[in-house]
Amino acid sequence: MRLDKAEQRLAKAAERLAGLAGGIIDVAVIVGSGLSEAFAERTSLRSLPYERLPASPHATLQGHPGRALGGSWAGKRVALFSGRVHLYQGFSPNEVSYFVQLAAAAGAQTLIATNAAGGLNPALAVGDLMLIEDQINLTGMAPMVSLSAEPFVDMVEAYDARLRARVHELEPSVRDGIFAGVRGPYYETPAEARALRTLGADAVGMSTVLETLAARALGLQVVGFSLIANAIGPDAHVRHADVLGTGRAGAQRLADVVERLIATL
Ligand code: HPA
Q1: Which domains does the chain have, with CATH numbers?
Q2: Measured in angstroms, how far is the CA atom of residue 218 from the centroid of ligand 1?
């Protein structure tokens, strides 16, 4: 598919999203696996199934209901993407970053990306909230977001330093960490977990890194949160159902921090 065609369809979807939200949006929030309910409960946003957004790739995996929510939240006009698509489902880097591109086209200046991740750093416990300080993209891929955006993106302080400081002020229990993004879909071998740790990663997941690349290419400021859903390492057997089920309490804490952060934007 040629990008200029895709851009036209994106513009249509952005119009529809802005219509849902009641105007140009300020902030986009991408809600990760198993976290949707906690966010939906807190807001009274209007909902639109992904099928109604032109060119939208939509989520098929259990735990990833696919809909966009839009409206006012914490005094800002917000689009909340509940459910994302992943490389491991066979989607391209461009499709994976669709919601970021859509948010940018609808006017968003800030992206808040959330995910459930595996904790590599033994200091991170299941249920902890990690604020992403920086990322290691191990997917071997990057999105090409538009013909007009510079593809060679500067990724220093990709996760906005000013907003990270603000999150720490709002919620002292949040821990900083480096997020490694892998393609998956499987949980790491002990050797891989060790290798990731050696590379400097504190948590690992199968999303977010391409979204952040896209957001920076499009000039959005980015904040990223990982809810530690499981430990990963030599003694840590992981069951997918447990990862999806983890953390109702964690998800609520995360939604609460996000709400307070949005209020300051
Ligand atoms: N590894 C990779 N991705 C994940 C994990 C994990 O342990 N937990 C949640 N997403």
Answers
A1: 5-264 (3.40.50.1580)
A2: 27
Name residues contacting ligand 1 (CB within 6 A).
116-118, 184, 187-188, 204-206, 229-230, 232, 238, 243
Expressed in angstroms and rounded, the spacing between residue 254 Cα and the centre of ligand 1 is 18
SS3 of 180, please? strand
pTM equals: 0.94
| CA distance linking residue 115 with residue 161, whole number of Å | 19
Predicted confidence band at 137 (pLDDT cuts at 50, 70, 90)? very high
Helices (H), ranges, the chain: 3-21, 36-42, 93-96, 98-105, 161-170, 190-199, 209-217, 240-245, 248-264
pLDDT in tens, 166-184: 999 999 999 999 999 999 9
Bridge partners of 28, per DSSP, are 79, 111
With the most atoms of ligand 1 within 8 angstroms of its CB, the residue from 84, 188, 227 to mutate is 188
